[in-house]
Write a structure and sequence with these properties.
The structure is a single chain. The chain has about 300 residues and is of the alpha/beta class. The chain has two domains: about 90 residues, Helicase, Ruva Protein, domain 3 (Orthogonal Bundle); about 200 residues, 3-Layer(aba) Sandwich (Rossmann fold). It has 13 helices and eleven strands. Strands 7-6-5-8-9-11-10 form a seven-stranded mixed β-sheet, with helices on both faces. The chain has a two-stranded antiparallel ribbon with strand order 1-2. A two-stranded antiparallel ribbon has the order 3-4. A hairpin with a 2-residue loop joins strand 3 and strand 4. Helix 2 packs across helix 3 and helix 3 runs antiparallel to helix 5. It is elongated and about 70 Å long. Bound molecules: S-adenosylmethionine (SAM). S-adenosylmethionine (SAM) binds next to helix 8, strand 6 and helix 11.
Length: about 300
């Protein structure tokens, strides 16, 4: 064997090992995720199986295709991008921010750290509003719209006119982009809750307001507290201040109109007691989340 051919023979395996297949990347990604220090923290949800989710995102295919074509080679640029996402996930960044979207009520919403990641329990708000079967052309206001998931969904699922507010200009930018992409007609406004709006023309106010007590911060997952906007999460007075303000504002809404609110998992009894003391509101329904806790309050202005 000549010097040259020995050199060629030696070089070949090095080049081959640089080319990584889908299976190689899945194995490497799973190892990194398995080694994440957050795997041993109950508050986290970092799972080795997310490797396939992240790789599917980078390859712009469905997860099932990733699993089916393990032998396919992945070019260096995409492999590096994927491994960077895996490392960020292993250090606690939410998967939805890494891939840039989250599904809500069957539609994809763009998300980034300017907005709260839509949660499955918030879909109960949509179901509660749809169950009210409001007349055609009703007026709905979504307070604290964030990614716009509630406002855009209601615009597409009902014939109502939708207005949505947020205090955060950043959030409104994301919400506008989502509504435009989905073809949802929503009028967005920057204001403090519903300040400056004419409430007696509204048929319904819907809101998933900030309701977490600031004192609960140390008990929450750093995945949430280090990445999601605190304006979206926390409210003073044990998390009740924004809900309290909304209950107060209902005083100026039309008799017979509705307010549908998401509340914290431990705020059901507080809300029931609070409503008992109010003459202008009745609690029509308190809907349980998937874990059996009261999370969606359907209130009617009396
Ligand atoms: C829990 S997030 C809900 C986001 C979105 N509606 C959802 O369900 O995913 C609460 C939202 O309320 C907004 N917010 C907080 N305080 C507000 C205020 N005083 N006026 C208007 N919006 C407010 C936050 O910026 C955030 O977007």
């Amino acid at each position: 064997m000549s010097q040259d051919s020995r050199h060629e023979t030696n070089a070949a395996p090095t080049q081959a090992s640089d080319v990584r297949t889908v299976d190689d990347l899945l194995t490497e990604g799973r190892l990194v995720l398995r080694a994440s220090r957050f795997r041993h923290d109950d508050r986290f949800d970092v799972e080795p199986r997310e490797a396939a989710y992240l790789l599917a995102h980078v390859l712009a295919v469905r997860e099932v295709q990733v699993r089916a074509f393990g032998e396919r080679e992945v070019d260096g640029e995409r492999a590096a991008h994927y491994l960077d996402l895996v490392r960020r996930r292993a250090s606690g960044e939410p998967a939805a921010y890494l891939v840039g979207h989250r599904e809500f009520y069957g539609r994809e919403f763009r998300v980034d750290p300017r907005v709260l990641i839509p949660r499955p329990e918030t879909e109960h708000l949509i179901e509660a509003v749809l169950a009210l079967d409001l007349p055609v052309g009703s007026a709905i206001l979504d307070v604290g719209t964030g990614s716009g998931c509630i406002a855009a969904t209601l615009a597409l699922e009902t014939s109502a006119r939708i207005v949505a507010t947020d205090l955060s200009l950043d959030a409104l930018e994301v919400a506008r982009c989502n509504a435009r992409r989905l073809g949802a007609k929503v009028h967005f406004l920057r204001t403090d809750l519903l300040s400056g709006l004419c409430l007696d023309t509204l048929d319904l106010v819907v809101s998933n307001p900030p309701y977490v007590s600031p004192e609960a911060l140390p008990t929450l997952s750093p995945e949430v507290t280090e990445h999601e906007p605190h304006l979206a999460l926390f409210a003073p007075k044990d998390g009740t201040q924004v809900v309290e303000r909304l209950l107060g504002v209902a005083r100026t809404m039309r008799t017979g109109s509705w307010m549908v609110l998401e509340i914290g998992h431990d705020q059901g009894s507080w809300l029931e007691r609070r409503i008992e003391g109010l003459e202008h509101l009745t609690l029509a329904r308190l809907i349980l989340d998937y874990g059996g806790r009261p999370r969606t309050a359907v209130l009617q202005v009396t």
